[in-house]
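Agenda item 2: adenosine-5'-triphosphate complex prediction
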Amino acid sequence: MLQAISLSKNYGSYQALNQLNLTVNPGEVYCLLGQNGAGKTTTINLFLGFIEPSAGKILIDNEEISASDDQRRKHLAYIPEVVMLYGNLSAIENLDYFSKLAGFDYSEAELMKFLSNCGLQEAAHHKHLAGFSKGMRQKVGIAIAVAKNAKIILMDEPTSGLDPKATAEFTELVKKLASEGKSILMATHDIFNAVSLGTHIGIMKQGELIHTLLASEISASDLQELYLQTI
Ligand SMILES: Nc1ncnc2c1ncn2[C@@H]1O[C@H](COP(=O)(O)OP(=O)(O)OP(=O)(O)O)[C@@H](O)[C@H]1O
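Presented output:
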């Protein structure tokens, strides 16, 4: 479980995040919506420990963690908008490398299983990443998150630039990860995707979470209307 309690971040006198309270339980997919500059990436960067909060707390499984805490690295995985991997290594070699960094030494069969479970076709397992599409890179990125056994996955604009088929595959994969008990937090601009794959939706404006909704209780068109009224 991932929690923010009254989490705030100031840059000088500018308040990028103001008293954020948010919980992502195992099995939940929390989608953060908001205009450019609303504070979504700031929130993710605080959870990741890339930046220090000005006030407030971050908890993982009810335990407060500090920015330097190693526990954070163990439990969290991050899928950025563009998954950065080694272009001159194959999918298997990338997965093996990052798994070993996280302390896991898997057999080739195990590595291939992670990649297949994340939707990467076997024919691509031994190919260099340099030739991969954005969707394929993302599958390898997610396989790395799964292989390191992270219970919390943070994603920043994961569907931007994906074609409809890759977006649909991504949606199915995220639902599967949630059903396996991962806590997933995602910053997105994609209202329709938030409704179809999210369990919870938060709308941010100027560093504040101003609406929290259950995805099951709102249609995409109602969410779009609310969003447009909000911003
Ligand atoms: N290092 C920094 N110094 C000063 N201001 C910053 C810094 N990082 C972010 N900000 C400001 O904080 C605010 C929130 O930015 P943030 O990147 O979290 O927004 P966002 O919701 O992720 O936007 P986008 O959809 O464009 O990614 C913005 O006004 C941004 O300019």
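Discussion summary: The helical segments are 40-48, 70-75, 91-101, 108-117, 134-147, 164-179, 191-197, 220-230.
Owner for follow-up: CH.
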